[in-house]
Amino acid sequence: MRTQEVFKAISDPTRRKVLKLLQGGSKSAGELAEAFDITKGSLSHHFNVLKAADLVRCERRGQQIVYSLNTTVFEDVAAVLLDLFKVEKGNGERS
């Protein structure tokens, strides 16, 4: 997992909104673009950052590019965060 790329990707509100929209299932680039008031070039940049972090997958279906969440990366990130914020026990052990 590319931890730095993941945190960079989720640091931006536009990219978080893309991820939130994809929670409901796969969507084409056009369907996602309807939810934003930004240029297609800007949105393409956000898609590329999400792809570089491996948070989304894309598939060409005819003339359309369809995006979906890569849930395995989210599971890996959750494990990293849980490990990072584990509470230490009194004798140095982690709980």
From TrEMBL:
Residues 1-89 form the HTH arsR-type domain. GO terms for molecular function: DNA binding; DNA-binding transcription factor activity. PROSITE patterns: HTH_ARSR_2. Keywords: DNA-binding, Transcription, Transcription regulation. This is ArsR family transcriptional regulator. The gene is sdpR.
